[in-house]
Amino acid sequence: MAEKSVEILLVEDNPNDVELTLLALKDNNLTNPIHVVRDGAEALEFIFATGAYADRQNAEKPRVILLDLKLPKVDGLEVLRQIKANPHTRAIPVVALTSSREECDIVESYNLGVNSYITKPVDFDQFTHAVRTLGLYWLLLNQPPVM
Amino acid sequence: MRGLKLSVKLPLLFVAATVLVAGIGSVLAVSMGHDILRTQSMDASVIAVQNYASAVGFYLDDARSVLETTAHLPEITDFTSAQSIDPALHGLPAGVDTPKRDVAARILEHSKVFEYVMLLRADGSIYLLEPYDLQVKASRPDLAFTGWYKQLMSDGATVISDLHISIVTQRPTVVIATPVLGANGQIIGIWAGALKLSELSQIGTAGLTGKTPQRYGYITDGRGLIIAHQANSKYVEQQTDFSTVPPVRAALAGQRGALQFFDPIGRADELGAYMPLAGSHWAVVYEESTQIAFAPIEELARDLALLGAGEAILLILSSVAITRQITGPLKQLAITAQAISAGDLTRRIEVRSKDELGLLADEFNQMAASLGQAIERLRLQGAALESAANAIVITDREGAVRWVNAAFTALTGYTAEEVIGRNPRVLKSGKQDAAFYRNLWETILAGQVWHGEIINRRKDGSQYTEEMTITPVRDERGEITHYIAIKQNITERKQAEEEIQKLNAELEQRVVQRTAQLEAANKELEAFSYTVSHDLRAPLRAIDGFSRVLLEKYAAQLPTEAQRYQQMVRGNARQMGQLIDDLLTFSRLSRQPLKIQTVTPADLVRQVLQDLRQEQEGRRIEMTIGDFPPCQADPALLRQVWINLIANALKYTRKREVARIEVGVMPMTDSRWQMVDNQQTDIQPCAYFVRDNGVGFDMRYADKLFGVFQRLHRMEEYEGTGVGLAIVQRIIHRHGGRVWAEAEVDKGATFYFTV
What we know:
The complex is a heterodimer. By secondary structure, chain A is α/β, with parallel strands linked by helices. Helices cover 41% and strands 15% of the residues of chain A. Chain A contains five helices and five strands. In chain A, α1 crosses α5. The longest helix of chain A is centred in the C-terminal third of the chain and has 18 residues, at 124-141. Chain B is rod-shaped and about 250 Å long. The two termini of chain B are 103 Å apart. The interface between A and B is medium-sized, with 19 and 25 residues.
């Protein structure tokens, strides 16, 4: 698993949401390799190939990151900040996933350079619809960034 | 002079001035007259002396020529028959050698100049002397001792003797003697005549008048003894010596001329002309008393003096009169002025003349009147200053106190007597530094007003704070002469201010604390909202999500009833999600700041209808949109109001065949609304409304309409969370507006709001 090419990185602590998100992706026939990390610290290790993911030095970066903003250890906004602050990872599209509609989150994540934003609605149908729209866009239409 | 009264001074001044002028004029005139008269008199004297000298000269020449002529007569020269003479007889006896005596007698008879004629022998002895009665009186028989004999004998020519006493008459005489020559030319005898000096004195006296004429001529011999004197022949008799008289001395020295001199003989001032008599050693003088010469001018001077005196008396009288006229009113002026200065300002001068004095009196009366007004004003102002609530201090330029009022004493404890003449620094508390006082003095010395607060010390040592204004006072030349300081005790005010400041500080502290508490509370609320939105929704999402998975993937294994239940689970989860979203929206409205700007409500309404088109699909709706004026509001929030109200209208008309919805605006003329909105009277107040023909509601529950979670319809009839109208009310209230509704069951409802 460490060596395999990961195209979608899902950063999500809530196991229910992980499962539902994977279902939504699957429903949309997005079968690209997906890796799930459960907190901000792990997300950073994966992205920057440190700690438990030190062996991913030469692996390709994910083509899109679905990032929950409310995370244990290191929160989503901090993860976003570090991705966008690093020249090697800056080009990776990040789609913020959150159940929050709090404006400060939205404004802050846009300020940090988030590429898109999905509010996780209670209605799963709406969520599926949103994932389809945005996920497709970033995965299929965007060319992988030159590393 | 200074001590004299004006009534004396003025006449004195007039008289002195007039007399001085007249006096100077008179003296000048007299002096000039003197000069003219002296010159005239001297000229006249010179002529007179010349005439007199000529006359005397003729007289003497006549006498001399008589003797010289007769000396050659044979009767005289013939001494052949000369008789010896008895020396006791002092000459020939009568009747002897009669021819000679006859000649002498003829001379005496024809020429009145001689008193007697005598013939001397060459040795000087008297041969004969005619008249004979004089010959017998001769005290000596010869005259060889006389000077004129000796001179004749040595000169051999006619001589005129000096004055001497005749041996015959024993009176002064002058002898003219001529030699009698013999055949060989030798002197054989002397032919002489003694002049009648009284006759000589008569020469030229014809024009002289008076007993003792003031103009006269006289003759002296070579020694200065008087030979003839026109005025006083006594001088001749007394052989008076005139040699000390200046004109005599000058003439004897051979000079001629005229001068004014003091006559030591007559003891008087005289004018005199003089000259030596030709052919003799005699002096001829003609003199005149200055009393006479200058008499006209003396008279003039006397007249002038009299005139001056008269004038002076007249002047004194008239000036006394005039002065009385002037000083009378002046005296009254002085008396009135004294009365006024003594404080009686009602006094006036009664002078009715139209001259300067009248004017002066008028001016004086006016001055007294305005002085009275000024004093009255000053008295009032003084009383005002004295009774002023503020302490007032007047100092001179150096800062010495000149006046203080009662409030000053009340403020400082010092009485006027204690501070007048002293410097206000007695009040110094030491609370202000030197720089403070330097600034104060620099300000007022520059002529500017100083204003400030100052802590001073009372007489009893206690301190107080005063607010002081120092104003420089200038005189008409612009020089600062005094300073006026006005002080107000602000100790209590300062204490009150400090109290207020302390309270304010406390209040501010409390506000800071409260604000901090509020901010903390707000933060907590935000954190709560965040948690709610995040954490409450997550499980709902899971419930809905997995229910869906169940329904989709395992529908075949689920009985129909189970599937329905599962659908209900999903519906409730979504309902709860909606509730949470509405609650968050509602709470956010309270926290978001308003962004008021000009909004066009018609545009907002059209956008809202566009957004709500899903709800309008498949329905017959008659929508009326009115004409909206722009208004001031937060556009996002106002949009939320329109969304909620129009969505409600659409929702509650769902069962109508034809839904009629009217969105519009109406002016607020109803007094009921005016009352509510009377703080906005400057704007034409208007109310927006959304009217529908929906199910309406019972007005009895109208008060519940805008409460959170309050619903008037059952859920299965009309879905909703009961938050929409609460949001509307919150937004309208935040805009300072009002929202209300009118409705009737099954007839429709109208929702009004103002912003």
